[in-house]
Amino acid sequence: MAKLDLQKREEFAKCAVPHMDDVYAAGLYLTRSEDEAAELLQETYLRAYRFWHQFTLGTNCKAWLLTILHNVFRTRFRERQHAHQQVEFDETVHHPESVGDTGSNPEELVLARLLEGEVEEALRTLPIEFREVCILIDLQDLTYQEAAAALNCPIGTIRSRLSRARRQLQHALREYAKAHGIRRRDSYALR
Amino acid sequence: MHCADYSDLLAAHIDGSLTAGELESAEAHLATCPRCTQRLAEARAFRSAFRRPARRTPEDVRQRVLAALDAEGEAERPRIGPWPWWLTWRLAVASAALALLALAGMLLTRSAHSPDMLAQVASEFAAQRRHVRLEMLTDQPGVLRHHYQQTGLPLSGETVMDLKPLGFQLVGGSIATLGNTPSAMTLYQGSGGLILCYRFMAGEVRLPDGGEDIDGDIFYTLGGVTICIYRDGDMYCLMATSMSRAELMKVLAGYV
C-alpha cells in the first residue's frame, strides 16, 4: 500500500482496506473455496480501486465493496460453481412441528451448544440465492435496502429469500444438534 | 393474510423492517394463527442465538491483494518511491506528457510542423508507457517555487500555481530539458485528471499551425490530449492534460 498514490490511496486505505476480512468471509461463503475466495477478494479490491471515484465518501463502504463482490461473483465465478439447483423448502416436511423434540423456544438453547463451524457449514449448504441474502444481512449487517441494491433485486425478494434462508438454517442446525445428541435438557444443564 | 404471505415477511418482521400497514396485517394474522405465532417465536430465538462465524483473511492472501493494489496504483498513478521520484503513468497521462514534450521540442527548435505530424507524434506515444522523473514531491507550491529558484533557472512570474481551490493538488516538479532549454515541469492532480505544466524562458517561438487562439491562449488537441500554450513576456507556459479543452479552460479561468 505504500506505493498507492496521494488522496485516492489514503482514502482507499482508510475506507476500503479495513473491510477486507468481511469481504473475504462473504466471498468464502459464496464460493465455498478458499482459493476462489482469495481470487474473488483480489478482483473485488482491484475493481474497487479502479472505480474509487464512483464511491461517495461517507456512505457505507462495506456495502459498496460487497456489491462489487457479488457482481464479480456473478459475472466471473458463478459459472464455475457446481450445478446447484435451488430446492424449494418443503414446509410440510421441514416445518419445526414435524422435527420433534421442539418446545416453545428450543433454537436458542440448541444453538448455544453449536460451534461457529457448524453454523458456517450450514450456511454453505444453502442455495446460492438464499446464501447471498443471508451473507449480506445476517453476516454483514447490510440493511434490506443495501442488500437489494447489491443484488439488484426488489426488497420483497430480499425479504422472502431471507425468511426462507433462515428457516433452512434453523432446520439444518437443529438436525445437526439432533445428530450429535444436543437437546434442550443438555443445554439447560450447561447453564 | 395467509400463512404463506406471513412466511415471506417473517424475517422482516423480526428485523423490524415491516411497514406500518404490513405490521398491522401481520399482527392480525398472528392473533388468529398459533402455528405462525410459534414459528415467529422460534425464528426470533434463532436469530438472537445465531452466531456469526468470524473469518479473517489469511495473511498471504491479504499481502497478495495489497501487492496487486500496489501494482495497480503504480500503473495508474504517479508512483511514489524513494528519492528520486519516478512516476509511471497509464496511457492518457503518458500521452499527455509525451505529446507535450514533442510539441515543446518542436517549438524550441523552431521547425515547421504540420498538425498531422503532431497528431502522429501524439498517437505514437499514446500506445506506450513512459517514466517521467519528478525531483521534488510536494503539495506546497511555495516549496516547489523555492526549489526552482535554487536551481538558478531563469523564470519569472508565478512558476507554480496554487490550484487547490480549483480541486487540483500539486504533486511535485522537476527541471526538465526541452530541446536545449531548461524548464520547470510541474504536475497537478485532481479528480478530473492530471495537468502537466512546463514553464521556460525563450525568445520568439513559432507556434505550430492548427492551434486555436482563445483570448491569447493557443489550444491544440492531439490524440485525446489537450494542450494549452500561453506567453507572458519571455516566459512560455505549456500545459497538457487528458481533460477536455472546456474543462481545462474552466480551470484556467478559475485560476485567473
In a few lines, what is going on in this structure?
The complex is a heterodimer of chains A (191) and B (256). Chain A is an all-alpha fold and 191 residues long.
Question: Which helices and strands appear, and what pairs or packs with what?
Answer:
The complex is a heterodimer of chains A (191) and B (256).
Chain A: H1 6-15, H2 20-31, H3 34-50, H4 61-77, H5 91-94, H6 96-99, H7 106-111, H8 116-124, H9 128-139, H10 144-151, H11 155-179, H12 184-190
Chain B: H1 3-14, H2 20-32, H3 34-49, H4 59-76, E1 85-88, H5 91-108, H6 115-126, E2 131-134, E3 136-137, H7 141-150, E4 168-178, E5 181-190, E6 193-201, E7 212-214, E8 217-222, E9 225-232, E10 235-241, H8 245-255
Antiparallel strand pairs in B: 1-2, 3-4, 4-5, 5-6, 6-10, 7-8, 8-9, 9-10
Helix pairs in contact in B: 1-3, 2-3, 5-6
Characterize the structure shown:
The complex is a heterodimer of chains A (191) and B (256). Chain A is an all-alpha fold. Chain A folds into two domains: 6-80, RNA polymerase sigma factor, region 2, helix turn helix motif (Rna Polymerase Sigma Factor, Chain: A); 91-190, Orthogonal Bundle (Arc Repressor Mutant, subunit A). In chain A, 69% of the residues lie in helices and 0% in strands. The model of chain A is unreliable at 82-105 and 183-191 (pLDDT under 50). Chain B is elongated, with a radius of gyration of 30 Å. In chain B, helix 1 (3-14) packs parallel to helix 3 (34-49) and helix 2 packs across helix 3 (34-49). Chain B has an eight-stranded antiparallel β-sheet with strand order 3-4-5-6-10-9-8-7, sandwiched between helices. A two-stranded antiparallel sheet of chain B has the order 1-2. Chain B is of the alpha+beta class and 256 residues long. The termini of chain B are far apart. Chain B has helices spanning 3-14, 20-32, 34-49, 59-76, 91-108, 115-126, 141-150, 245-255, and strands spanning 85-88, 131-134, 136-137, 168-178, 181-190, 193-201, 212-214, 217-222, 225-232, 235-241. Helix content of chain B is 43%, strand content 25%. Chain B folds into two domains: 3-49, no CATH class; 85-255, MucB/RseB, C-terminal domain (Phosphorylase Kinase, domain 1, 2-Layer Sandwich). The interface between A and B is large, with 59 and 49 residues.
